[in-house]
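Write out structure tokens for NTP pyrophosphohydrolase MazG-like domain-containing protein.
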Amino acid sequence: MSPTAGSEPPRVVLVETSDALPGLLPFQAWDALASAPVVHLRDPDAHPSAQHLFFAGLDLVTVEPSPLERRDLDLARPGSPEDRRLAKALLAQAEADGVVVYLLGPGDEGLGPTLGGQAQLLGAEVEFVFLAQQPAGAEFTRLVDVLRRLRDPEHGCPWDLEQDHHTLGRYLVEETYELLDAIERGVDVDIEEELGDVLLQVVFQAQVARDRGAFGIDDVTRGIVDKLVRRHPHVFADVEVDGAEDVQRNWDQLKAAEKTDRTGPFDGVPPALPGLLLLETLERKAAKRGFDWGGSHEPADRVREELDELLAADGEHRLEEFGDLLGAVVGLGRTLGIDPEEAARAAGRKFRSRFEAMLALAAKRDLPVDDLSRDTWLELWDEVKAPD
């Protein structure tokens, strides 16, 4: 299979594709594909780019692997047997036609090195047409396509097909809290995973909406992009700002201009927010209208006042007074720059850690935890708390 003197050596052109953006090919790739009588693929039915090439008018041909002969059974050669059979078939086709164009796809990760090793021995050439660097977010399109397939009425997943906006709501809440937990623990691998789970819920909801003819993921992304551009005129237009406070002020003004149907200070605040977050949000919005405490001493005094009222209240009014105390504590935290939800979760983690340490300490000392006296519990508590 050596080329004759003065003739061009057989050549195999490998065109790289992207599973995430199957229709995105650079000019050089389209030029190579369009110049070939046919485009060879491992499996046109399974290749993500096959449909795009078909509608472009290109003829697609499946490569039939060549059988390996005894002289091909050299274990020192690179590649799996499947890749070696495919490489041998491509080189034989190139010898017959001069040039053969092959579209790389799923399962072809080892074909290039395998083909290169065989081509060198046979005096043939291998040319790669690489993709340009994919833009950030390219993998997002794969997620959209996966959800579309899962919701396919004929070939989708029965569980996914049963879901609607309401049934998915609980998962969005759960995944959001799992993300917050990962963020607070500061474990990057967990943050990455939980962000993916939250993103799944967003795309899933958008696919449900598309299936009922309401809107789709492109409408969602277009809407948020347009909103971000509108509300950042200091970045995308010629507005000048002096620090983050100016940015927040402009944001609020632009938002108010857009939400003309909202007339009250608390319009748009979901009443289903977690309690502490709801209190903080309402107090923050009231503060923007001028109702706020001065410094940190006034909120601290308010906490003491509400605590006294709670302790003096009878059973009928204790719930109300306890709520007032929580509101005062949230107000104090806001003036100190403390997120009440974050502080409450941190307190929960600390309490859990200390109580588990108490149980471990009791077990180490063979103390019966189901029969410990109050004084013993307090002694254990002070002991595990001391290192803090």
